[in-house]
Amino acid sequence: MQRLKRWTVWRGMLILAALVWGWAASPAAYAWPGVVEGRPTMFQPGARGGYYIWHNEDEDTHWHIETTDRPGFNHLYTGAIRTDGTFVNVSGVQSEGDDWVRQEGNGVLRFHFHTFSGIDGVRFSIDGGSTLAMNLFRDDAPVALDRIYLGRDGSHPRSNPVRFNR
Question: What is the pTM of this model?
Answer without folding.
Answer: 0.81
